[in-house]
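Exercise: predict the fold of this chain.
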Amino acid sequence: MTYDGPGVFRAPYGNDDALENFHRTVLDGVEIETVAPHTEVTFDNDVVRLWGTKETVESSWSNVSPGDYLIFYRDGTYTHAVEVLGTEKNEDLGRQIWPNHEADKPWICIVYLDVPTRIDVDSSLVHGLAGYDIDYPMGFSPLNDMGIGGLRGKYGSIEQFATGPERETLPDIEVVSAPSITIPPEAISELYFPNKQKQEITSQISTAINAGKHVVLTGPPGTGKTEIARLVCEYLASEYGDHYTGYQTTTATADWSTFETVGGYMPDEGDGDLQFEPGQVLRRFKRDGVQQNEPLIVDEINRADIDKAFGQLFTLLSGHAVQLPYKRAGREIEVKLGENFEGTPEAHEYVMPASWRLFATMNSYDKTSLYELSYAFMRRFAFVHIDAPSVPEDEAGQTALVGEYANVWEITADEDSLRAVGIVWHATNTAVQNRNIGPAIIKDLLSHLEQAPRDPEARRRVLTRAVVSYVFPQLEGVPRRGRVVERIASTGVVDGKELRRSAGEILAVDLEQDG
């Protein structure tokens, strides 16, 4: 069925004039006595809210209809959403309302608006759903169909995304001091760990934070590292609200540079002048001129070239203020330490609160990447290892362990399925030393197998495909991966011939030579 709901249009307000216009004509609104003499449009209220664009973007503006939404962007964040009430091309009104326009380029394409809602959604989330390569809008432009679908899938509807409950007024954030943190095991209660592992994990993280360290969670794939980081940050934001205002998650890539982390210059929509655009880290400290403290989770940090991606942040993470080679309003951008700061940050200043932390995850399959980090970088981190559980040697123990997890996950599986998955788990984790997979991948195998017919041959085929889909991706680039494949292929619970053939195509291994 074709989507016929509201569209979404991205409206940046990057430079100082645009910021002033946004506050004056969108947030505050304009008295009707100022607007009425210049238009034939009638209004129901005494205050008119409106936004405008240059004629050069009329092709985008002309597609805006009543019921659509504008989402306003600044400094890496979509700060507000507002429903469109109507549009009008009116040069006389545009010149009257926005006299600070670029020379000979007045805002004549008018959009009349309802009351805005503050949403504070990181642009990387919206643009990631849309499949964009960049996290900032290139002028006034529509969000593509993929982005519309992504927002509907995540929030339920565009209306829910744009008109959800407004964030409460943020309290003044404590930046000078860091609280003594105690993260209880209950903070990660959504995850299942045997024995006292939850207590050990939360205790290590608490100790690291209180020691002033940032945290790298390392361990085999599928052990819940990213979820642990997320739940810990949720706990910090909910229980230490005087210090934390939320958190953000991002995934590192090989293409990362300091533009993604620190920021850099981008052309402004209005006059084309270059404006400083803060990166992922700086956006955690300030949004729309307001001090923030949002821990940042960097998933798979080892995928980035650390030197290229973090650059000047080495100095910051080592506990020193840093001056960046960029300017805002004629003054060099500075990142200062909260413990030494008094007052309110100016436009060119960012303040890293004393309690701010960077959380990162890293698969131990890739642990050799640790040696590519400089000592100055590594010494600011505590490394907390999240291990996979030991898989028993006997089939009865393997079946029992998988059954224990299946109960927690509320997955229905018969004894034969539990046994088969347990055998695969044991084979995978014992083929090569220190090459394990965690429970999350076992959950994927079980969920896949749950849909299989109950006859043994069908189960073998489905489990074989599941191993290819969920286990093989964890083996890419892993030394001696052929031995792991051969061990699984020889268990008898999968189609060994098909598994070996798939390994040759996907993992590019010659099992006889690589095993």
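Check your answer against the key: The radius of gyration is 27 Å.
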